[in-house]
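A reminder from the course coordinator: this example appears on the midterm review sheet, so study it carefully.

Given structure:
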């Protein structure tokens, strides 16, 4: 089933390059200082996956659904993955109610 799929057309290295270019563009748009630019340019595809997971959970509060989206074998793994077991992340979620 891989014949003709995106998996054949774009390599993992290409995805990393796209994400890095996106980070550079965002840094330019924000007028980021050198430290901020360095962080934005160091973005990796996995950072986007984790961010997606965090926001999907934060919006829905459906850990089982997010777990399925990520392909995790259990919701416990997803909870650890997005940091729900840490007090800092709970405080962040409560402090930023509009997310």
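Designed residues:
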């Amino acid at each position: 089933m891989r014949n003709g799929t995106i998996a054949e057309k774009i390599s993992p290295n290409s995805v990393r390059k796209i994400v890095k270019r996106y980070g550079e563009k965002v840094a330019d748009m924000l007028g980021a200082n050198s430290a901020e630019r360095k962080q934005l340019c160091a973005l990796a595809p996995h950072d986007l996956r984790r961010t997606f997971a965090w926001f999907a959970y934060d919006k829905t509060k459906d850990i089982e659904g997010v777990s399925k989206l990520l392909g995790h074998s259990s919701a416990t793994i997803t909870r650890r993955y997005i940091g729900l077991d840490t007090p800092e992340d709970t405080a962040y979620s409560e402090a930023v109610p509009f997310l």
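Residues 45-95 form one domain. The chain has a mean pLDDT of 82.
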